[in-house]
Write a structure and sequence with these properties.
Keywords: Transferase. One of its GO terms (biological process) is acetyl-CoA metabolic process. InterPro entries: HMG_CoA_synt_C_dom, HMG_CoA_synth_N, HMG_CoA_synthase_prok, Thiolase-like. The radius of gyration is 20 Å and the shape is globular. The protein folds into two domains: 227 residues, Thiolase/Chalcone synthase (Peroxisomal Thiolase, Chain A, domain 1, 3-Layer(aba) Sandwich); 153 residues, Thiolase/Chalcone synthase (Peroxisomal Thiolase, Chain A, domain 1, 3-Layer(aba) Sandwich), CATH 3.40.47.10. It is 34% helix and 25% strand. The chain is α+β, with helices and mostly antiparallel strands and 390 residues long.
């Protein structure tokens, strides 16, 4: 049975700050942000958006009535969960009016969460071929103003339908993976901001890629020549390139050029959104699919997933015939075109405008947020959501 990605959608908030402007405000050479880490814009979530609404908005326009009836499993990968008990998947299930005879859960392992969800979904479809699984990866990367990690913040979500006989990409069976207990990035339950050992995390990212790639070659007999492109989890767009360069010597100059060129295309969406943790790898994959118009049906794509702490996995897929007919290129172009740039002062004000954590009730004005699904407030410790299309 062929199992894989049947549909893929994306959402990011309507606000962003230009990295050149942020660099000037932080007394940093702009090239450090735009070239050194490879970021041009950083998505800014207003108070009316959280991980739940980002994910729901990403899924909203890719689901039809048949999908809503066939989806019997919602798996939400995030490290920006809003509740220690109730899963974010349950909220999304209700906001999207999905079939009530379904499972809905949340999974967590840093930026690896959505990949774990996909692997779980494959097992479910293998046992239930008529089912569909909605996999979500949504996060808000938040480190703090004037911190070392500030330039790698971002916000957004990717939504995917996993099914039998998928229209976009078949996921091949073989994958290789690795777990090690390390402290390169973490966020204690008492903190709304992450802690990171940047140099150590970069080293571990590359080490994990080299290890799972070595395992993959040994177990499959494949090499770089067998891939049209390799997509990476991108905490910032230069990170994946650093890892890719460590293995390029294994192949010919022509293959090196192809993989490097396609890597650059795969980073374009991430460059103008920032880090979205669990969704970052799949945003990179989406960038490749939508922006490389001559990417051929039948191409094999490699994907490297990394979640600090740490879990890494290398897996692969084959693009299906006429896969481009099933993408949402125009919708995503419109999403980017309609975004609004904010000044650094406005960004800092938005960053500091957060939901109360002392149990206070709050009602939010959602009229300035163009998103269909928003956070509308908190009542008696319960977040309130609105779907404007109902």
């Amino acid at each position: 049975m062929n199992i894989g990605i049947d549909k893929i959608g994306f959402y990011t908030p309507h606000l962003y700050v230009d990295m050149n402007q942020l660099a000037v405000a932080r007394n940093v050479e702009p090239e450090k942000f735009t070239i050194g880490i490879g970021q041009e814009k950083m998505a800014i979530p207003p108070i009316t958006q959280d991980s739940v609404t980002l994910a729901a908005n990403a899924a909203l326009d890719i689901l039809d009535d048949r999908d809503k009836e066939q989806i019997d499993f919602v798996i939400f990968g995030t490290e920006s969960g809003i509740d220690h008990s109730k899963s974010a998947g349950v909220y999304v299930h209700e906001l999207l009016d999905l079939n009530p005879n379904a499972r809905s859960i949340e999974v967590k392992q840093a930026c690896y969460g959505a990949t774990a969800a996909i692997q779980m979904a494959k097992g479910h479809i293998a046992l239930n071929p008529e089912s569909k699984v909605l996999v979500l990866g949504a996060d808000i990367a938040r480190y703090g103003l004037n911190t070392g990690g500030e330039s790698t913040q971002g916000a957004g979500a990717v939504a995917m339908i996993i099914s039998a006989d998928p229209k976009v990409m078949i996921l091949e069976e073989k994958s290789t993976y690795l777990t090690k207990d390390i402290m390169d990035f973490w966020r204690p339950v008492y903190s709304d901001r992450a802690f990171v050992d940047g140099k150590f995390s970069n080293e571990q990212y590359i080490s994990f890629f080299q290890e799972v790639w070595k395992q993959y070659k040994e177990q499959t007999g494949r090499n770089l020549e067998d891939f049209e492109a390799i997509c990476f989890h991108l905490p910032y767009t230069k990170m994946g390139l650093k890892a890719l360069r460590t293995v390029l010597a294994e192949t010919t100059e022509d293959v090196q050029e192809r993989l490097t060129s396609n890597y650059k295309i795969s980073t374009k969406y991430n460059r103008i959104v920032g880090n979205i943790y669990t969704g970052s790898l799949y945003l990179s994959f989406l960038s490749l699919l939508e922006l490389k118009e001559d990417l051929q049906d039948g191409s094999r794509i490699g994907l490297f997933s990394y979640g600090s702490g740490a879990v890494g996995e290398f897996f692969t897929g084959i693009l299906q015939n006429n896969y481009r007919d099933h993408l949402y290129v125009q919708q995503h172009n419109q999403l980017f075109e309609e975004r609004k740039e904010v000044s650094v002062d406005e960004y800092e004000a938005i960053f500091g405008n957060t939901l109360p954590t002392d149990g206070s009730n709050i009602e939010l004005d959602v009229t300035n947020d163009p998103a269909a699904i928003c956070v509308s407030g908190i009542t008696e410790h319960m977040r309130q959501y609105v779907n404007k299309r109902r």
